[in-house]
Amino acid sequence: MSMGLSILLITYNQEKYIQQCVESILMQEAPFDVEIIVADDHSTDTTLEIITRLLSKSKFPYKVLADDKNLGMQKNYQRGFAACSGKFIAVMEGDDYWSDPKRLTKHIKYLDAHPECVMSFNRLIVYNEEKGTYTPQKWDHPDSVENITTAMLARKNHIGNLSACVIRRSAFVKLNSDLHELGFADWMLGMVMGEQGSLVKLGEPMSVYRVHDFGLWSGRSKTENFQKMINHIIDKYDNYLGYRYHDEFMDHKRRLEAKLRKSALKYAIQKNTPGFFIRLVKILVPVNIRKALWKT
């Protein structure tokens, strides 16, 4: 059955990563109508050239929303979403990629069978470029899918990356336009979509989120990100959602504050403890015991 899907590709100066990103789109086995919308925010490197070269051989029709000036991430997203005409919208950011050729099919199959579901997202594989490690998100749910609510998201971001998301456009267009002025990303989008209908997380890891020095979020330290969440983002989102999830947001804030305190304590211990003693502890105390002691 043809359902119609728009793939929204958001790019800006990502020539280092964009080929792998686009190739992961083109490998998708999609038994339904697909269009690719490229919202490039006036890249000054070869990002757009690489995209155009690769898409010229695409089996999917595509449209490039190039511009002669930099719009900024939110306005670029806004015009990208506005250009999408599919029943569903799959988001892809130019430094990420999809790892499963049936990823889109699996999402659309679920969404089509569950019309009450307005947004799906899958488990991530976090690729740390510096360390060269690939780490799947934890999955503790007994089933292959997990139903997620806005309240659950306010307490903890279960999404983690827009490139993991597929959105039902009929629900998305009902959102207030001022959402784009808020500076939203995957977390806020999930919460406002959750007030339109149900959300689901697919347990199969099918997207790779790349952690690198130039990422908008991953390019900052955990401490910087936690402080920004605590001092600015959580309160702003709480206010936007009319304090309907205030208790959950405060739980989130307290959890991040505890992590910051723990991180500061760990740093102080490492700074003030002689190196030979730390090495001795690592030799004598098994790693599982050290982890257990640190969690207490």
Would you give an account of this structure?
With 296 residues, the protein is α/β, with parallel strands linked by helices. It folds into 2 domains: 5-218, Spore Coat Polysaccharide Biosynthesis Protein SpsA, Chain A (Alpha-Beta Complex); 223-295, no CATH class. 42% of the residues lie in helices and 21% in strands. The protein has helices at residues 18-26, 47-55, 73-83, 103-113, 150-155, 169-172, 186-194, 222-240, 246-272, 275-284, 287-295, and strands at residues 5-11, 34-40, 62-64, 88-93, 97-98, 117-128, 133-136, 145-148, 165-168, 198-211. Strands 1, 2, 3, 4, 5, 6, 7, 8, 9 and 10 form a 10-stranded mixed beta sheet that branches. Helix 1 links the parallel strand 1 and strand 2 (34-40). Helix 1 packs parallel to helix 2 (47-55) and helix 8 (222-240) runs antiparallel to helix 9. The longest helix has 27 residues, at 246-272. The relative contact order is 0.12. The model has no long low-confidence stretch (mean pLDDT 89).
Question: What attributes does this structure have?
Answer:
alpha/beta, Spore Coat Polysaccharide Biosynthesis Protein SpsA, Chain A, 11 helices, 21% strand
Brief characterization of the structure:
The chain has 296 residues and is of the alpha/beta class. It has helices at residues 18-26, 47-55, 73-83, 103-113, 150-155, 169-172, 186-194, 222-240, 246-272, 275-284, 287-295, and strands at residues 5-11, 34-40, 62-64, 88-93, 97-98, 117-128, 133-136, 145-148, 165-168, 198-211. The chain has 2 domains: 5-218, Spore Coat Polysaccharide Biosynthesis Protein SpsA, Chain A (Alpha-Beta Complex), CATH 3.90.550.10; 223-295, no CATH class.
